[in-house]
Amino acid sequence: MQLIITDAWLVKSRAFHLSGTKLLVTILVLAFALMLVAAGLYHWVFLKGAREGWPVVGTLVRLVVKDEFAQRDRFMRENIEVMAKKLGEMQAKLLQLESLGERVSGLAGLNPADIKIKPGQGGRLILERDLSIDELQVTLRELDSNASQSSVVMTVLESRLFEQKIKKMMVPTQMPVANANLGSVFGWRIDPITGASALHTGLDFPATPGTPISAAAGGVVVTQEYQPEYGNIVEVDHGNDLISRYAHVSKVHVKKGDLIKRGQKIAEVGNTGRSTGPHLHFEVLVQGVPQDPQKFLNAGRNLLATPNNRTNLAATSVLYGSNGGSNGTPQAQR
């Protein structure tokens, strides 16, 4: 491209030769310079007009600012409404959690009246105004307080339920010999050796020698020795003056002082001591007094059959105070 510039006064002409690349660069530079000038003028006019209150410019500025604030306010209201909806859902879930905690507290042995939950609320929905930021913050603080209280309640419930589970595991309610038939029961009988009337202080489970014997509950081995009447004997202390005894065993797998758990193999069926054949003699003693082990085993079957463990635990606790003791001390049946 050729550009010719003519000077009318001096009657001179000057020619410029522009290639395609130079022409494009020149156009871009001119366009950019024009944009800078336009932006500077726009900025200067609006700032000066806004400061000095020019009629037209001031009105335009106020309209622009008003529209911007309106958009910002609408955006905030929409976000507050979304947050309020989510907050309502969280409150509903928290109320459900608190109601569940109130029901579970009864199973844990707590008084439901001691569990302070927020009272139920409801009624007709009337929308009169938007929720403010201050109200939203107050509701959030209240929700945080309720959540903290629920956390404390759930911790207490967990502790109580764990305590109940431990107590249940420490009561000898599991069969010591699996799939064994019951021989002699607790009570008076004709002694198989002397033929005289004698008190049988436990249950006999006939089984083949070497049959595994399991702990009826968790505890600590307090006796592991040989006695003439019982033969090889193992005694497990379950706490609360409750002891289970396993007699006539052939082989012992634990020693005195061992901490064992429910269902753990502790010995094998044998025919040691004062015995007429291979069997396990199983006893349960409360405060040193023999009790009918069948009560404990029946309570264990009820615990497995019924989902409400609280009722069955209460039934199990009767085992400690039944049989007519006036001061709660269990008495041997005669």
Q: List segments where confidence is low: pLDDT < 50 over at least 5 consecutive residues.
A: 308-334
What is the N-to-C succession of helices and strands? EEHHHEEEEEEEEEEEHH
Tally the helices. Answer: 5
Rounded to an integer in angstroms, the radius of gyration calculated over CA atoms is: 45 Å
What secondary-structure arrangement, pairings included, does this model have?
Layout: E1 2-7, E2 12-17, H1 20-52, H2 55-107, H3 133-169, E3 187-190, E4 197-200, E5 203-206, E6 212-214, E7 219-227, E8 231-237, E9 242-252, E10 259-260, E11 265-269, E12 279-286, E13 289-291, H4 293-305, H5 309-317
Antiparallel strand pairs: 1-2, 3-4, 5-12, 6-11, 7-8, 7-10, 8-9, 9-11, 9-12, 12-13
Overall description:
This protein has 334 residues and is an alpha+beta fold. The protein folds into 3 domains: 2-52; 60-120 and 129-169, no CATH class; 187-293, Glucose Permease (Domain IIA), CATH 2.70.70. The protein contains 5 helices and 13 strands. A hairpin with a 6-residue loop joins strand 3 and strand 4. It is elongated and about 155 Å long.
